[in-house]
Amino acid sequence: MTYATDRLHEEIAYVAYHFHWDLDEILDLEHHDRRRYVEQIASLVTRAGTEG
User: Locate the DUF6760 domain: which residues (predicted)?
Assistant: First the structure.
């Protein structure tokens, strides 16, 4: 099974934007770890939006 290239690029951009990590650091993550970071960032962004 392959992971959709567009989805991978979205995840990379999302993590890079919020954590300021470079491409190599993000690509070195296992898929499930990268997805977990994406989910955690989304949770933080949502929480921050409701607290302001």
Answer: 3-47
Render pLDDT for 8-34 as a digit per residue (tens, 0 to 9).
Answer: 999 999 999 999 999 999 999 999 999
Q: Which two tokens stand for residue 52?
A: 């302001």
User: Distance between CA 35 and CA 16 in Å, rounded?
Assistant: 13
Cα angle 10-13-15, degrees, rounded to a multiple of 5: 105
pTM for this predicted structure? 0.79
Where residue 32 falls (left for φ over 0; alpha for ψ -120 to 50; beta otherwise) is alpha
